[in-house]
Amino acid sequence: MLLVLWIVAALIALRLVADLFLSALNRAEVRRHAHAAPPAVAAIMDQPTYTKAVAYTLEKSRFEVVTTIFDTLVLVLVLFGGVLPMLYSRVVGWGGPDAVWTRAIFILLAAILLSIPSLPFEWWEQFRLEGKYGFNQSTAALWVTDKIKGVALVFAIGFPLLWALLALVGWAGDTWWLWGFALVFGFQLLMLVLYPKLILPLFNKLTPLPEGELRDRLMALGERTGFKARTIEVIDGSKRSGHSNAYFTGFGRFRRIVLFDTLLAQLTAEELEAVLAHEIGHYRRGHVPKMIALSAVMLFAGFAAIAWLARSPWFNLSFGFPPGEVAPSFLLFGLLSGSVTFWFSPLMNVLSRRYEYQADAFARDAMHGPAAMIGALRKLAQKNLSNLTPHPWFSGFHYSHPTLVEREAALIKDSARSGRAHAMSA
After folding, report:
1. Among 34, 107, 227, 242, which residue has the fewest nearby CB atoms (within 10 Å)?
2. What is d(CA 198, CA 191) in angstroms, rounded to the nearest whole number?
3. Are 5 and 362 in contact (CB under 8 A)?
């Protein structure tokens, strides 16, 4: 049992050391270019904006170091301090020895209680750090309301799902994890459809892009690129943050593209068209079903691991829980899995970046050149104070998108190659 605790402690410590090391590398790289931006970066940002982006990156990195150390200390305390077994015995005692609902409540309560210590840091980041650089648009009342709504949703959605999942253990026996995988994966697919319709409106307002030249232009783009959308929606992201974005959600006839209202205010019509073409590129290149399939594989592996750990008496007992109980195994897996999956994040980011390059290439072709996409990316980097000089190791672990310099280089290179191929064929 002691060996298990030592292994877990080592995994947590290695993850922490790696995080701090990568963060230090990144700050050193940013400081190295702080006074003189590389030529490729200088072409993207003017000096005052670049100086502000450097300051924002460094301050945010230092803040993340503090939160990372604090979160790790909290994790160590709850794992090795006997807090979770005490909570488990108390909550399970509310019902009978085989009551499923108490075990579901235990997981939910533990998750909520574990999130409480980080609330002051979240507040500071939102109202101090983000506010200092002009990004925060939220209010204290809205922030608190969001937290309350989040807790309510955890119980409204999480409790029935967990109850059904844990009930499968008694109903299906040793094969419960196969049924559990099917249940959760089906739920995830359902949420792709229901989230923008039922949950997102609780926090943000979604409205169709108004009639006019911009909407006609974007809808025409969808028609000529094979993406027949019933509507393009605008989300009021500006009520919380000055950051801008666009994203693709849903699948099949439920697919939709959502643009932040901040994005509409920052980009020209042609640049918005390029951003939309990029999102359509994800759809046309089949990235959504591929990522769903990969998610299914990872979810399947996760359920198999939880089932194996729950059957292994040494796992639960090492942390003070009764052997064979699935609910504690679920919680422990959720708390510990990040220390393992962290080391695979560069592989996931390689795949994600490949998809981003493909979507960029699609947008370039749809816009008959890279200029509009490059213009949009540059403005987004400027408005969001993006870090344009990250350390390669840091970006490998933490960046799901290529850096702007890398994206511009790929767009220009591929455009030149395409132009040469077209000239040769002519």
Report:
1. 34
2. 9
3. no
Active site residue 360: yes
Q: Measured between alpha carbons, how far is residue 122 from residues 203, 277, 327 in Å?
A: 17, 34, 28
Nearest to 368 by CA among 277, 268, 284, 245: 277
Interatomic CA distance for residues 424 and 335, integer angstroms: 57
- 222, 281 contact by CB (below 8 A): no
Q: Select which of 360, 406, 408, 414 is catalytic.
A: 360
Encode pLDDT of 313-364 as tens digits: 899 999 999 998 999 999 999 999 999 999 999 999 999 999 999 999 999 9
Q: Which of 19, 29, 130, 279 is flagged as catalytic?
A: 279
CA distances for 366 relative to 200, 258, 363, 369, 373, angstroms: 30, 19, 5, 8, 10
Q: How far is CA 256 from CA 110, 233, 251, 293, 358, in A?
A: 35, 8, 8, 20, 19
Q: Which amino acid is at 253?
A: R
Q: Is 252 left (phi over 0), alpha (psi -120 to 50) or beta?
A: left
Question: pLDDT grade, residue 419 (50/70/90)?
Answer: low
Question: In terms of Cα–Cα distance, which of 290, 285, 279, 324 is closest to 103?
Answer: 324
Q: What is the pLDDT of residues 43-68, one digit of tens each?
A: 889 999 999 999 999 999 999 999 99
DSSP reduced 3-state for 178: helix
Whether residue 279 lies in the annotated active site = yes
Tell how strand 206-208 and strand 246-249 pair up: unpaired
